[in-house]
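Hey, weird one. I pasted the Septin-type G domain-containing protein sequence into the form twice and got a warning about non-standard characters only the second time. First submission, copied straight from the form history:
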Amino acid sequence: ENTLRNKSSTSQIKSLKGNVGFSCFPDQVYLKSIYDGFKFTLMVVGEAGIGKSTLINTMFENKIFPSSSEVTTTENIKGVEITSMSADIQDNNVKLHLTVVDTPGFGNYLNNDNHWQPILENIESRFDAFLAQENRVIRSKIVDNRIDALIYFIKPTGHSLRTIDIEFMKRMHAKVNLIPVISKSDTLTQEELTAFKARILADINFHSIQIFKPTIGSFDDPETTMDTKDILNKIPFAVVGSEEYVKREDGNMVRGRAYPWGIIEVDNEKHNDFTQLRKMIIHSHMEELKDYTDTVLYENHRTQKLLSMGHVQDNSVFREYNPAAQLEEERKIHEAKIQKMEAEMNAVFQQKVMEKESKLKQSEEELFSRHKEMKQTLEKQRKELTDKKKQMETSVRPSSPMDKKPKKGLFNLS
Ligand code: GDP
């Protein structure tokens, strides 16, 4: 884990087997990934003892996460640490390389200001490490350590979100798929939970916090659509975790928690939302989580980073997650281009018309003055001619009958 900004990274690779559920992955993705297996990186955030390790172990049906009592006690930690552990889980011959990134120390002090900071830095440093590899000339063997999802554990207080919850989610939502869960939901009654969920959603809405919500695809069959709607209805998931098996009234052993008044079953949809949470992450929306991380969250980070470094974004390579939105964007750009061209053409046309008009006007004026000049010249000539004619008329008088008699003169020889 060379990209981790952590001081005490405990990385362990375990080979585990179980009936986890990712081998029932949607066919296409399954075929694509079957050769090299799946890879998933999950971050968990919440104060010590909130139920993180129990939930992860329950979800992957393996002891991936040592219980907090087995780990160095968080009292020794100053501030927030980042640790990670990996496990190769086998499910019906399909391999999942799972990395769980833990953040011990978060929320454990009286003053928990800025606890989000090392976590945000860690998420961003993973993006940066990926970007550095993408920018290399030889890009084979890119190691992808980006966080695909972050489970944020909300304390089952039954009130509403605390300042630390709101601050954390607001700082994080543009960088990671946020999945808020209410942990240890068995400590609240059904009524308390319903009201708590409503208040949490209202807070999330009020603060414009973007949490991960699976999308219903336009080509999804009715059953898948129903499942996704069912998942959407459960957000924020109220979960119960337990690695223990307890005996039900019918004698069956189930994962759950035993109480004097009865048992709470982990895998029973009527008892809590663990099934939906697990289905979303491991089965139906693992690919969507990875996709969204890659095409939206990482891409935005990359754009900001490059812009801050003085690069100009080349929109032609900008990958938009939503193809319809991308088409719409391209159509708008195209339309704007055409409008600009039209406006430019109009301006050129106007200019040309004006030039022509002024030329015509000019030549008209020239013509007119030439015409005037010519007219004046002609007039002058006419006047001159008239004058001449008059002169001639006065000098050569018409002959009187008397003049018919030849005059005596030099040449008159007769
Ligand atoms: P972590 O420090 O966040 O990893 O918390 P753990 O998973 O180690 O859990 C701390 C304690 O809470 C343990 O005693 C667990 O058995 C208990 N615990 C975990 N999940 C639940 C739950 O869903 N309901 C109840 N009632 N207790 C739980």
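That's the output from the first submission. The warning seems to come from a hidden character in my clipboard, not from the data itself. The chain is about 45% helix and 15% strand.
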